[in-house]
């Protein structure tokens, strides 16, 4: 059982308190996390999440700006010696304060930075998408296996109560097999940034936020897709999206006749997912938010207490390190999703040809 499942399955903080007490009794070491890359997600979500962690702690940063690192040191209370640059990060190898490196750099740097962290003997959380290509995922998995460290992907929704309910519905079939799935994650991209530079992003909205639809569909289907068809829509702003797609639509076929109609765009706003079976349905809107997820079902509206998704993820990974348990959001899962993404791009590039995915 994951820490998130322990908390949420028990109905509240009592489950968390019991598991945390067991993990940290006797003043045992709290795994230290180093954030690598201090952009918007680190500043706005991950750093504040440490106010809610019980098992792990913020131990330092890896940044391209020494001045920024010093500000973080003063604000969050870690020693200045725990500020590294990208060139000096190998020095974390001998630092007992550091157990986990959380890679929060652009997608195109994930493989390089994950491999470096593994070579330093540190466990790794890597933001999604795992990398730009399946080949890069394989290199990351190999490096972590050789170093005997765990690799987790930043799939925070694995710890969200509403998405855990989707898992339960899929498993227990309250609504029957969830056979008709659909979802979209889109937002309006207005100015040039690394997310539309293919070398750094790997692609456009599919890589950035469309991956959330893939994850939700795989959870609802309890399987990987067996085939993909896709098409890229004509660009309305080709001068901005000259390297990546602006809007893409795709169909995922799963075992047993389950299908998912999905889309992702940088030219409109949408955040939803729906799963329907013969006896009922569940709809998320918004579906993938950090907070404020709303869910309706054919039986009525769901209402669960908000949870700190990122804190639960980091604490669960820290508990994996302390106990030897394997992370439920592993690099293998990240690789599986990159296989799907590569197939989507391949189908779109080949005029919508149906791409059969290799058996898992």
Shape, per Cα inertia axes: globular
CATH topology of the largest domain: Dihydrodipicolinate Reductase, domain 2
Number of helices: 11
Structural class: alpha/beta
Tell me, what is the CATH class of the largest domain? Alpha Beta
Largest sheet: 9 strands, mixed
- Overall mean confidence score, pLDDT: 94
Helix fraction bin: 25-40%
Quickly list its features.
360 residues; alpha/beta; Rossmann fold; Dihydrodipicolinate Reductase, domain 2; 2 domains; nine-stranded mixed beta sheet; six-stranded parallel beta sheet; 11 helices; globular
Description of the structure:
With 360 residues, the protein is α/β, with parallel strands linked by helices. It has two domains: 3-156, Rossmann fold (3-Layer(aba) Sandwich), CATH 3.40.50; 158-356, Dihydrodipicolinate Reductase, domain 2 (2-Layer Sandwich). Helices cover 36% and strands 20% of the residues. The chain has helices spanning 3-9, 13-24, 40-49, 66-76, 110-119, 134-147, 161-172, 198-201, 205-221, 309-323, 331-349, and strands at 32-36, 57-62, 83-84, 100-103, 123-126, 151-153, 180-186, 227-232, 247-253, 259-265, 270-277, 280-284, 295-297, 300-302, 355-356. The strands form two sheets. A nine-stranded mixed beta sheet has the order 14-13-12-11-7-10-9-8-15. The longest helix is centred in the last third of the chain and has 19 residues, at 331-349. The two termini are 24 Å apart.
């Amino acid at each position: 059982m994951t820490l998130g499942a322990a908390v949420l399955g028990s109905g509240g903080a009592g489950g968390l308190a019991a598991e945390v007490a067991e993990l940290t009794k006797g003043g045992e070491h709290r795994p230290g996390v180093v954030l690598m890359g201090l952009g918007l997600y680190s500043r706005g979500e991950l750093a504040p999440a440490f106010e809610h962690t019980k098992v792990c702690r913020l131990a330092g940063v890896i940044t391209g700006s020494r001045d920024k690192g010093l500000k973080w040191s003063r604000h969050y209370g870690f020693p200045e010696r725990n500020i590294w640059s990208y060139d000096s990060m190998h020095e974390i190898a001998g630092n007992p304060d550091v157990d986990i490196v959380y890679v929060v750099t652009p997608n195109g740097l994930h493989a390089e930075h994950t491999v470096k962290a593994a070579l330093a003997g540190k466990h790794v959380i890597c933001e999604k998408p795992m990398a730009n290509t399946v080949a890069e995922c394989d290199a990351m998995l190999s490096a972590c296996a050789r170093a005997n460290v765990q690799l987790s992907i930043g799939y925070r929704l694995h710890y969200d109560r509403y998405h855990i309910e989707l898992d339960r519905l899929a498993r227990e079939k309250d609504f029957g097999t969830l056979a008709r799935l659909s979802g979209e994650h889109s937002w309006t991209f207005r100015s040039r940034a690394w997310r539309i530079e293919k070398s750094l992003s790997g692609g456009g909205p599919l890589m950035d936020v469309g991956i959330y639809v893939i994850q939700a569909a795989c959870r609802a289907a309890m399987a990987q897709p067996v085939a993909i068809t896709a098409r890229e829509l004509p660009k309305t702003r080709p001068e901005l999206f000259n390297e990546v797609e602006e809007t893409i639509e795709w169909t995922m076929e799963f075992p047993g006749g389950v299908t998912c109609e999905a889309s992702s765009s940088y030219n409109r706003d949408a955040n939803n997912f729906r799963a329907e079976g013969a006896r009922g349905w569940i709809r998320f809107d918004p579906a993938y938010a950090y907070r404020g997820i709303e869910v309706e079902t054919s039986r009525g509206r769901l209402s669960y207490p908000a949870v700190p998704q990122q804190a639960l993820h980091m604490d669960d990974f820290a508990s994996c390190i302390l106990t030897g348990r394997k992370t439920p959001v592993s690099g293998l899962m990240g690789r599986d999703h990159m296989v799907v993404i590569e197939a989507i791009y391949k189908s779109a590039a080949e005029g919508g040809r149906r791409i059969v995915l290799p058996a898992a």
